[in-house]
Amino acid sequence: MEPPEMTEEMKNWMDKAFQMAQDALDNGEVPVGCLMVHDNQIVGRGRNEVNETKNATRHAEMVATDQVIDWCKKNGKGSKEVFEDTILYVTVEPCIMCAGALRLLRILPTLQRCIIYSFDPLRTLTLFSFSLCPLPSHTFKKS
Ligand SMILES: [Zn+2]
């Protein structure tokens, strides 16, 4: 499966993801940044916040995911539907934790909705493996 060709629009989104990565670096974090784009607008953006928060799960993708959920609440949208129609732009290939989360959120069925600037050959197998995993059949109940 080949990643899609980068259009000018995609390059612009990726530039913004790199700005997030620079912000991470400027703040003493591993320089990873990402954007989540839905309906041609940014609904989530994230950069690593692991050192600031002393929370090893605060990777760029997880930070952006929380923002998307907040955006959905503010805009009266269902997060499932929004995530299913969201494109992720991320500066490096997601780690195994984030890849698993992206799969559960249905962002990662194909590379058409997961635009990665830099592939790490050691991680690629993990990402593709997750993209092939069946999704759990349970659904979360609304509280
Ligand atoms: Zn991660």
Automatic annotation (TrEMBL):
What are the names of the required cofactors? Answer: Zn(2+)
Answer whether the UniProt record assigns the keyword Hydrolase to this protein: yes
The UniProt entry's GO CC annotations, sorted and at most eight, read: cytoplasm; nucleus
Please state what the protein is called: CMP/dCMP-type deaminase domain-containing protein
The protein's organism comes out as Eleutherodactylus coqui (Puerto Rican coqui)
Q: Name one Pfam family in it.
A: dCMP_cyt_deam_1
Q: Which UniProt keywords apply?
A: Hydrolase
Domain CMP/dCMP-type deaminase: from-to ranges: 8-135
Superkingdom? Eukaryota
In the record, biological process GO terms are: tRNA wobble adenosine to inosine editing
- What GO MF terms are annotated? tRNA-specific adenosine-34 deaminase activity
